[in-house]
């Protein structure tokens, strides 16, 4: 809610860093070094930041270090309205990487405890940044994800040049080609509602899968929490397609609810099989602009790349007419 040219302090996680580049300043003709970051924090938002001059060259963050998502603490960053809303350095801006500070520890814990897999609202539209947020096709996503490697305790696990532990992608005009269902298996799972510490001084829902004891009606999770109720949460598998190909992605609760237009609780409590089938059919073939996050993980001793939806914008008939 701040206005352009105001100054702010920020502590967040570096999720992407572009290579350093040199630009010519139009009004002076001088060359200046520039580097772009994407920064996310526990507000659930991300923003692009442009770092200039000596700070860009000696800030302590480059493409390699950014792969391990360091914490950055910034004071007196200037707000810009370039690319939606973004940040840029000024003469009074200071930047510290992985500082010994309680706020930095809070943000890092949030990231480790689940922030890195959660949905993120992008305050910038990509004009100030580069690389990870540039629009791609499905085939671009698949090619880039071939270079993903496993991140083991923050250490590189690959000798492949330009390899990364996590990729972020933006695809424009993707089609929801298919929402996968397995018979009458629900599109949601039943989750634990017990509140546990979130690592930031607050609490969060356990959210692990629960099973119901039919004799008592109690819902229990693997950690031993027991409750008289549960909370259904979506996990849906989707095939996204564009002119270049198809990719399988997973949408978790917030994004799945926005896509389907129905809360998982409402689906569990009041929708019959025919209604659910009609809802799925009406959602398929929607066109969206979508942001994805790819990460290589191991399941049953097999490496695989998991791609999840972190944000999307529906494309309406009006959008298509304006682009025509």
Outline the secondary-structure elements.
Blueprint: E1 7-17, E2 21-24, E3 31-40, E4 45-52, H1 53-58, H2 63-66, E5 71-80, E6 86-88, E7 94-97, H3 102-112, E8 121-122, E9 135-136, H4 138-145, E10 166-179, E11 188-191, E12 195-197, E13 203-205, E14 210-212, E15 219-221, E16 226-227, E17 231-242, E18 245-252, H5 253-260, H6 264-270, H7 273-283, E19 287-299, E20 302-314, H8 317-323
How does this model look, in words?
The chain is α+β, with helices and mostly antiparallel strands. It folds into 3 domains: 117 residues, OB fold (Dihydrolipoamide Acetyltransferase, E2P), CATH 2.40.50.140; 134 residues, Beta Barrel (OB fold (Dihydrolipoamide Acetyltransferase, E2P)), CATH 2.40.50; 45 residues, no CATH class. It is built from 8 helices and 20 strands. Strands 9, 10, 11, 17, 18, 19 and 20 form a 7-stranded mixed sheet that branches. The chain is globular and about 75 Å long. It starts with 6 loop residues before the first strand and ends with a helix. The C terminus is likely disordered.
Short description:
The chain is an alpha+beta fold and 324 residues long.
User: What is the residue-mean pLDDT, rounded to a whole number?
Assistant: 82
DSSP strand content: 35-45%
- The low-confidence parts are 126-132, 152-162, 319-324
Q: What integer value in Å does the Rg equal?
A: 22 Å
The total domain count is 3
Structural classification: alpha+beta
Provide a count of the helices. 8
Largest sheet: 7 strands, mixed
The percent range for helix content is: 10-25%
User: Which fold does the CATH topology of the largest domain refer to?
Assistant: OB fold (Dihydrolipoamide Acetyltransferase, E2P)
**CATH level-two architecture of the largest domain:** Beta Barrel
Count of extended strands: 20
First-residue to last-residue Cα separation: 33 Å
Q: Give the C-level CATH assignment of the largest domain.
A: Mainly Beta
Query: Any idea what the shape is?
Result: globular
| Fourth-level CATH superfamily of the largest domain | Nucleic acid-binding proteins
- The ordered H/E elements are EEEEHHEEEHEEHEEEEEEEEEHHHEEH
GO biological process, one term: DNA replication
Subcellular location: Nucleus
Domain Replication factor A C-terminal: 174-316
Protein name: 60S acidic ribosomal protein P1
């Amino acid at each position: 809610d701040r206005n352009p040219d105001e100054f702010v302090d920020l502590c967040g996680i570096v999720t992407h860093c572009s290579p350093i580049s040199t630009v010519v300043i139009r009004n002076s003709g001088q060359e200046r070094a520039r580097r772009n970051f994407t920064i996310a924090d526990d507000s659930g938002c991300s923003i692009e930041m442009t770092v200039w001059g000596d700070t860009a060259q000696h800030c302590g963050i480059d493409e390699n270090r950014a792969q391990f998502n360091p914490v950055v603490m910034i004071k007196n960053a200037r707000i810009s309205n370039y690319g939606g809303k973004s940040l840029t350095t000024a003469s009074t801006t200071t930047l510290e990487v992985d500082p010994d500070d309680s706020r930095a520890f809070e943000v890092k814990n949030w990231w480790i405890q689940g922030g890195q897999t959660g949905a993120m609202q992008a305050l910038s539209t990509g004009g100030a940044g580069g690389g990870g947020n540039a629009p791609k096709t499905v085939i671009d996503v698949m090619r880039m994800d071939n270079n993903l490697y496993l991140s083991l305790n923050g250490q590189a696990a690959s000798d492949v040049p330009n390899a990364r532990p996590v990729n972020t992608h933006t695809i424009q005009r993707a089609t929801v080609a298919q929402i996968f269902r397995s018979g009458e298996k629900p599109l949601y799972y039943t989750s634990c509602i017990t509140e546990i510490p979130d690592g930031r001084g607050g609490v969060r829902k356990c959210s692990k899968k629960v099973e119901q004891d039919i004799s008592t009606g109690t819902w229990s999770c693997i950690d031993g929490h027991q409750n008289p109720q549960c909370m259904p949460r979506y996990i849906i598998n989707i095939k996204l397609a564009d002119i270049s190909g198809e990719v399988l992605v997973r949408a978790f609760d917030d994004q799945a609810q926005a896509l389907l237009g129905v809360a998982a609780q409402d689906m569990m409590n009041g929708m019959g099989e025919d209604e659910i089938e009609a809802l799925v059919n009406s959602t398929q073939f929607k066109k969206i602009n979508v942001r994805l996050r790819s990460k290589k993980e191991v399941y049953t001793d097999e490496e695989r790349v998991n791609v999840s939806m972190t944000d999307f914008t529906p494309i309406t008939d009006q959008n298509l007419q304006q682009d025509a």
